Amino acid sequence: MLAVSACGDDGGTAPAPLTPRGIVVLDGFIQPGLTLLPDSGAMSTRIALGAPNEFDAGTMELRNDTVVAASSRGAGDLLYVASLEDRVVRRIQLPARSNPARARLLVQSGGQALIGVPLRDSASLALVSVNATGQPTITRINDLGLCPADVFQYGGDLWIVDANATCSSGYSPVGAMRLIRIPASGGARQVIVLDGLRGSGAGVIVQGGIAYISAGGDADFSSFPYQLLAGGAITRVDLNARTVLGTRTMPAGTYGASAKLGGDGRLYVSLYEDLVNYRDRTIAYSLPDLTPVGTRMQGADWLALRSSAGDQVACGASVADGLGRVHCIQNRTGSATFLMVFAPDGSLVREVAAGQGGVDVRLR
Amino acid sequence: MTSQMRVLAALIGSLAAASVLMAQPTRPLRTICVIDAVTGRAVPYASVAWDNAARVIATACTGITVTSDSRLLVTRLGYAPWRGEVRTDADTVFVHLAPIAAALPAATARAESSREWILGARNAVSLAVDSARASGAHSTGSLVAMLPYTFPRSARGEVSLSLRGARREQVAVTLDGTPLTDPATGLADLADVPLVLLGSATVAPGSDPILNGPGAAGGVLSLQSGTGSIMSLRTAAYGDRLAEGAVSLGGTGGRLRIGASHRTARNDFAFVNASGTTGTAIDERRVNNDVTRTSAMAQWQSTRANITVLGARAELGLVGPVNVRDYDEDRSTTERLFVRATSQLAGTMLSSGLRAFWLGYRDPARPLFNTTSRALAADVDARRAIGRVLMHAGIGGDRLRGDGELVQDRTRAFVSSRIAGSGALDWSGGVRLDAIEGSGALPSFSLAVARRMRSFDVGARLAQAVRVPTLYDLYFSSPQRITVRALDAERITLDAELHARWRTADGGASSAAANATTSATANGSATAFVPARTRVTLEGAVISRTTRNAIIWFPGNFGWSPANVGTEHVSGVEARAVVARGAVEVQAWSTLYRAELLSGALRVPTPYVPACAGGAAARASRGPAQLSLATRWLGARPYTAGPRDDAFMLPSVALLDVAFSVRPRIIAADMLFTFALDNVTDRAWQSVRGFPSPGRAWSVALTLTP
Description:
The structure holds two protein chains of two kinds.
Chain A: H1 2-7, E1 23-27, E2 33-37, E3 45-48, E4 61-63, E5 66-70, E6 78-83, E7 88-93, E8 104-107, E9 113-119, E10 124-130, E11 136-141, E12 148-154, E13 157-162, E14 177-182, E15 190-194, E16 202-207, E17 210-215, E18 218-220, E19 227-230, E20 233-238, E21 243-249, E22 255-261, E23 267-272, E24 280-286, E25 291-293, E26 317-320, E27 326-331, E28 336-342, E29 348-356, E30 358-363
Antiparallel strand pairs in A: 1-2, 1-30, 2-3, 4-5, 5-6, 6-7, 8-9, 9-10, 10-11, 12-13, 13-14, 14-15, 16-17, 17-20, 18-19, 20-21, 22-23, 23-24, 24-25, 26-27, 27-28, 28-29
Chain B: H1 3-23, E1 26-36, E2 46-50, E3 53-57, E4 61-67, E5 71-75, E6 82-85, E7 92-97, E8 111-112, E9 125-128, H2 129-134, H3 140-145, E10 150-153, E11 160-163, E12 171-175, E13 178-179, E14 198-205, H4 209-212, E15 219-225, E16 230-236, E17 240-250, E18 255-265, E19 270-273, E20 282-285, E21 291-301, E22 305-317, E23 331-345, E24 348-362, E25 371-386, E26 389-402, E27 406-421, E28 426-436, E29 440-452, E30 456-467, H5 471-476, E31 490-503, H6 510-515, E32 518-520, E33 526-528, E34 535-548, E35 551-555, E36 560-564, E37 567-581, E38 584-599, E39 602-605, E40 612-622, E41 625-634, E42 637-638, E43 649-650, E44 653-662, E45 665-666, E46 669-678, E47 686-688, E48 691-692, E49 697-705
Parallel strand pairs in B: 1-7, 12-15
Antiparallel strand pairs in B: 1-4, 2-3, 2-5, 5-6, 7-8, 9-14, 10-11, 12-13, 14-15, 16-17, 16-49, 17-18, 18-21, 19-20, 21-22, 22-23, 23-24, 24-25, 25-26, 26-27, 27-28, 28-29, 29-30, 30-31, 31-34, 32-33, 34-37, 35-36, 37-38, 38-39, 38-40, 40-41, 41-44, 42-43, 44-46, 45-46, 46-49, 47-48
C-alpha cells in the first residue's frame, strides 16, 4: 500500500515525440537509476540515481534531457534532477518528513526552469530553483488542502491537485479530490471539487486547455481479501472555464489509473485488473472524449498486447510514440526489466533488456 | 586376639593384597576427565561405568580405580556415548565426547593422555567466552565477531551473520543444539543471547543438513551454555551500561544456574555523513538509536535432565538510514522465550523445545502503521544410538500471527541417521528426510572423511541440503496470501569442501593455539593452555556451493515479495594461520569468495558478501596481564540485489580493536579487568548501507568469577 501511495499516478504535460530519440526507463528499486536505450538495438547505458533506501519514486518527468523525480519521507524527502546529456545527477534535500509526492518541471515567469514538488505531509508546494552556482533555492506555498499530489501550470497560474487524503497518517481518502488554482496575479484561490476522484495519488495531463486528472481509487488493504472501495477514474476539467466536463471511470474491479500522453495523442492508462492477481493492464483512450481505442481484448477495454508466441503480455507502465507503437516495461524474475514495443495492432516488434526494477518509461 | 596375631593377620592380608595387585595390573587411581570434543571445555555430569561400577563426574574429572584393560562407558546428555579401553599409562585420561548436536563429521571421542582434540573435517573454530572477554568481548555479537570466517552485521540493534558467502537466513544459530531461529524471519538475533549464558561459540562454515536440518546451508554458529558463577559490569561510550551475572548452585545431584543481564545504551554516536546532498561531509549524530535489553535465564543440569530457559526483552529506537528522518520516533519492542528440556529414557535422549517471539512496531506519527506479530515454534525429538548408527527423529510446528490477518502455520517432521567410524580414516555419513507442510518431502545427505596424521590432517565433505521458505516468505510471496505453497524450498544441490590442516609436530590442536580455548584439568577448572614451544598451525579449505531455486526478496510489481530465483553459486578459499610461542599468539585468516546469483541474463553478487576479507588477532600475556589486538578487513561489497555496479558497493574497510586485561587473584574469585578500544583508528564505516557504525569507542569491564 505504501509503495502504491508513494508512486502516485503518472502524468505529464509534455507529449511524447513522434519518433523517439531514445527510451528512458526509471529503475525505481534495487539499484535506482535511469536506463537509457536507443530506438533499436540491444545496447543500453545507465545513470545511477542513489541508494535504494533514499529513492522510492514511482514516476518521473522528462523534458528535453532533464529528468526529475522525488522520494517520499520514507526515503529521505529528496528531489532528484538528472541531466541525460551530461549524465549528472543532483540530489536536493527537501524539508524533512514533508513527504514529496512527485516532481514536475515548471517555468518561472522569467522563463527560468522551476521544479514543483507537492509536499503531502505539510500540505504545501515546494518550488525549487537552482542558480548558476548550483545552489538550490526552495520557496513554499502553504495551505494546499490535505494532501497535495500533483501540480501543473496553465495560463500562468499554478494548479494543485489535492488528493484530500490523510497522507500523513494512513493515505485514506476523506472525500473527493480538489483542484486548487493559485492565480499568478495573487488573487484569491479557487477550488474545484472533483467529485468522481478518490485516492491518495493523482496525476495530471494538460492537453488543449483541458486537464485530465487521474486518480487511482481507494482500497482497504488491512485484511484479506482486499476490498476495493472506489475504482480509479479520470476527470476532465476545462481550465479556461474552470468547470468539470465529466469523469471516465476505469473498468469495474480495476485498481489504479496511471496515465501518460502518447505521441499519437492518446492517453495510455496503466492499472491493475483486480486486487487478487494484480495483473497489469493498459488502456488507450482517445482525447478529448476518453473513449477506449486501439486493438483491445475481446470484451475488455485494455489493449491486446501479444508476445511473439501470441500470449497476452502484462505491462507495468506504457506509453506510445507518434507511430502508435506502445512502449512498455515488464519486470520479470529477479525484477529484471524488459522493454517491449508493440505495433498498433498489438503484436510484439521489439523486446530488449532494460535494467532492473523498472517502474516508469518515457520517450525522448 | 593378641597383638602378635593382629600383626600376623595384617601381614597375611597385605601379602594377599599384593598378590592380587601383581596378578591384575590395577592402578589404584586414574583421573578421568570428560571433555567436549568440539570446544575443549570440561563436561560436567557425565556418567562413567566400568567393571560393574559407575560414577557421576559432577565436575569434569574424577578419580576412579581401573585396570589397564578396563572398558569404560562414558555417557552424557547431549553427547554420543563413548566406549573404549584405557590403553595408556598416563595418570589422567581425557575422554573427548562428541556433542550430538555439534557439527562434527566424524567421531572424535578418544581416550588419550594428551590434551589434543580435533575439530573434524571442516573448517570449524571455537572460541571460549572467558578468552573472548579478556580480548574485549562484551556481547554475543562481539564474541562472534572475534571468530574467523564470520561476517556479522547490524543496523538497528539486531545482530545476524553470514558465513561462507551465504545470505543471513542461510545460517543456522543453535544454543546447545537447539535452533534459535525465528521461524518467521529465518534469522536468529544474536543480540538477544546474553553473553553470560554462554561458555563458548563454534563457527562451522558449510552445510550441515543432518544435525541442523533445513536452514543450515551456509553454516552453523553453535553456541554452548556456560558453567559456573560469574558477574560482570561494563560501562562504555555512548551511555552503554551492562550488568550481568550468573550463579551456579548444586552438587552431585545436579546444578542450577540462574542468571540475568541488563543493558542500556543511548548509542547517540557522532558520525560523518558523506552522502548528504550538499556535496560536503557533515558531522551528524545518530538519534533514536537507543537500546534497553533485559534477559534472564535458568539452567538445570544433571545426569537425568537438562533444562534451559531463556527470556529476553528489548526496546529499541528504530533509527533510520542516514538522510532519512522518517524513523526518528519509531520504536520496536521484541520479546523472546526459549525453553529446552532434555532427558534420557532407556537409552533414548528425548528433547523438547519451545521458541516464542513477539515483535511490536510503533510509529507515533502514524499509528495506523503500528504492527504486532507473534511467532511460535515447538519441537520434540528423540535421539538413540543403535549400534554405530545414531538415529534422530522429531516433529515440530511453526506458527505466525500478526496484524493484517497475517496467519501462517506449518507442521514438520524429520528423521535422520548418522554413522561414523574411525581408523585409518575418520569418516561419517548421514541422511535426513524432512517432511514440511507446504514443501513436501525434502531429502538431504552429508558425507565426510578425514585422514589424521601426526602433523597433518586432510578431510573432505559433501552435502546436499535444503532451506524452506520462512513464514514471512510464504506470507509475502503471494498477493493473495492464501496460497499455501507459493514458494519452493531452495535446494543446495552441492556443498563441497576440501579441508587441510598442518601443524608443527608438537603443535597440539589448532583450536587450542588459535583461540585459547581451554583444556580441562584434574581439578575441573578451566585453565588457559599455554604452549611451551613455538607452535604453528596452517589450515585452509576450498569450497563450492550451488543452490537451486534460491529464495530471494526482489521487489515485485506490488511491494516486496520473495521468489524462487535462479541459481546461486559460491566458490572460494578460506585460510588461517596460527603462530604461538610462550605467552604470545598470533593468528590471521582470510576468505576469498565468489558468490553470485544467476537468473536469466542477471548476474547478481550476493549482497554484503565481500570478495575478499580477512582478520588477524594477536595476544601477548605477561603474568596476569594480557594485551590483545584484533583487526578485521572487509573488502568492497555490494549492498543491493542488483548486478555488480561500483555505485552500489560499500567501500573496503579495515578496523582495529585493542584490549588490555589483567587478572589479579583476589581471595576466592578470579577478577578480570578489561579496558578496550574499538575501532581505534576511528574509521567511518557501515556494516549495512545507510547505517553508520560507531567510530572509536572505549569500554571498561570488570568480571568476577568465584
